[in-house]
Amino acid sequence: MSHPLKIWLxxxxxxxxxxxxxxxxxxxxxxxxxxxFEELRPHxxxxxxxxxFGIMTAGIxxxxxxxxxxxxxxxxxxxxxxxxxxxxxxGTAFVLPTGRQDYxxxxxxxxxxxxxCIEGTDKVYAATWAAFLAIFAHNVRSSERIETxxxxxxxxxxxGVPYSEAARQMAAAYRHYLNPxxxxxxxxxxxxxxxxxxDAERQVIxx
Length: 207
Known about the structure:
alpha/beta, six-stranded mixed sheet, two-stranded antiparallel sheet, 40% helix
């Protein structure tokens, strides 16, 4: 059973916040926060939206490094070298302590190998799902539980994913986190595949 979380969906723009509100409508524990990263209140874990090599020099990752210091990026990169031989696949994530009590954890969940367009793929879903799995695993084994998680808008910068589609894929991952299966069969697989790849009757992810 997945642990309940408080989810903050964070972005400074009106349009992205509206997309979050529309796509996450009705899902529990969700707050849309119109804010830059640097202005966020204390929370348990911030999820990055970076690349497979942990080079955090642009976008929201650069703001994270400015806030926590360059040593955090070095620790992310050491973890990638130690556990993934230098390249962390999209669809994986890990939780790292920051050393700060008010913002104790970072979750590194790459949305792309290198900066570039990911529109028409399921990489936003894969990164969001990986983040939820990493946080779930952390909470199972650690006494320092993560309860409040702040997500930026995945894939909307260098990735070129439209706001509404990024929010849709992120919401799909959260729905799946909230409703784990009790059995696995092809009917269940087909339903999940449709939830990821289709927006209503329109296919939005190419295969």
